[in-house]
Write a structure and sequence with these properties.
The protein is flat, with a radius of gyration of 26 Å. By secondary structure, it is an alpha/beta fold. α10 links the parallel β5 and β6. Helix content is 60%, strand content 8%.
């Protein structure tokens, strides 16, 4: 997400910070380059213009031009304005109404609406400990109702029973009645979509809104469609009382123009982003954190939250102690590999660490998750418990057996054993490293340790 824009802004800021004192012409040139970068990222023209005007007005002030580090002050202004465009602050979902709280999810067909309903239900169940009822009003798309029912079963929430030949308005009334009788705290309606906005669809949505009286009406929009997503949001906003937006497929959109334009044009907050296909891959949208990521400053808070949600605390402490004592074995290494996968993969984590966002592309090129990690997991799983605990036992005959069991050549087994040995040595020495030397050597160590594809 925002990878191309982030890289271009980083290059522009390098020029600014390398110049020392800035003249007004330097700022004007930087603003022109930023404007081009925004437009190439598919940001709407009016939004790009307004953004540049606001940044320029603050950046050419005397207190900036004459400051000790004017380039850094310009970067701070850009970050603040990016945060403003994205929504200034996180907009949480409103669950404070009298139960059952009704959430109506709308959008065009193919935007990922049904999956987003299930993702949202899971998040509300886990984070807010609410009893959730899912209800599909999509009687038009084949198997749409069945799809939501299956997803509801997967995440452990209830769904309204499917009844043949029942129209959406009847399903809405029946759902509300069931929720009230059975004590459900939240109801999520998965409404029908179309390939394009039409009068019939909007009339049906207006009627559902009138009957269900939703606390939230969330639009699901595909970020990959760029400015089309913004135009779709604008149209829905004109017809319905939209309260928020869920942007899907944000992980596949390296431009990010839809996210940057959406709030400014619709005056409607982005509440969630879909960051992958898995049912757990829905994140709350934090404008300040996203602005920090765009400018290559990382997002430690999100990294910590991911770790807290993905890693067992007791297991993590156990492994940390083993690392410090130098008794880090191959079972521990396997546990670490799996934890990295749970957190979205190595490239996802690297992008959240301040100062290391530039490494992300190199990690992607090495395709560690796709090649190396799978091989390493297969190798370790083909070993006995004793071999995992004592890697020195791995003689020629044992390597042949593991090679056959894992389907990889003996060379890859040797690479893994060398990597593990390097990790053990590094863990013992880590206490003596300072932060700068760790960052400086980090990519070199990583490349050497994981160059086994």
């Amino acid at each position: 997400m925002f990878e191309n824009l982030g890289n271009k802004l980083t290059d522009i800021f390098k020029k600014l910070t390398s110049q020392g004192l800035l003249k007004e012409d330097d700022v004007n040139l930087a603003m022109r380059e930023i404007r081009i970068a925004l437009l190439e990222a598919d940001v709407a023209l009016p939004v790009a213009k307004e953004f540049i005007n606001r940044v320029k007005e603050k950046a050419i002030g005397a207190e900036v031009i004459k400051s000790v580090q004017p380039g850094h002050m310009v970067i701070k202004i850009v970050q603040d304005e990016l945060t403003n465009i994205l929504g200034s602050e996180n907009s949480e979902i409103n669950l404070k109404s009298r139960p059952p709280v009704v959430i109506m999810v709308v959008g065009l067909q193919g935007a990922g609406k049904t999956t987003s309903c299930a993702k949202l239900a899971l998040r509300i169940k886990d984070k807010y400990n609410k009893k959730v009822l899912l209800s599909s009003l999509d009687i038009y798309r084949p198997a749409a109702q069945k799809q939501l029912e299956v997803l509801a079963t997967q995440i452990g929430v209830s769904s309204v029973t499917i009844q043949e030949k029942e129209i959406p308005l009847e399903i809405t009334r029946r759902t509300i009645d069931q929720a009230e009788k059975e004590g459900f705290e939240v109801v999520i309606f998965d409404t029908a979509g179309r390939l394009h906005i039409d009068e019939t669809m909007m009339l049906e949505l207006e009627q559902i809104q009138k009957i269900s009286k939703p606390t939230e009406i969330l639009l699901v929009a595909d970020s990959m469609t760029g400015q089309d997503a913004v135009n779709i949001a604008k149209s829905f906003k004109q017809q319905l009382d939209l309260t928020g937006i869920i942007l899907t497929r944000i992980d596949g959109d390296n431009r990010g123009g839809a996210a940057l334009s959406m709030r400014e044009i619709t005056n409607c907050p982005i509440k969630y982003v879909g960051v992958g296909e898995k049912i757990t891959e829905l994140e709350e949208f934090y404008p300040e954190r996203i602005a920090s990521r765009i400018l290559g400053k990382g997002d430690i808070i999100s990294l910590v939250e991911k770790a807290a949600a993905s890693i067992n605390q007791d297991e993590a402490e156990k492994i940390a102690k083993k690392m410090q004592s130098g008794s880090f074995d191959l079972s521990d290494m396997l546990s670490q590999l799996r934890s990295i996968k749970k957190m979205g993969g190595l490239s996802s984590m690297i992008g959240l660490i301040p100062g290391l966002s530039g490494i992300k592309g190199k990690i992607d090129d090495m395709n560690l998750e796709g090649n190396v990690f799978k091989k390493q997991e297969a190798i370790i799983m083909s070993m006995t418990k004793k071999e995992r605990k004592y890697p020195k036992l791995m003689n020629a005959s044992r390597k042949i057996r593991v090679s056959k069991g894992s389907g990889v050549p003996i060379q890859d087994i040797n690479i893994l054993l060398r990597q593990h040995l390097q990790m053990q040595k590094m863990m013992k020495k880590m206490g003596g490293f300072d932060k700068k030397s760790m960052l400086r050597g980090g990519m070199s160590n990583l490349r050497n340790m994981l160059r086994g594809s």
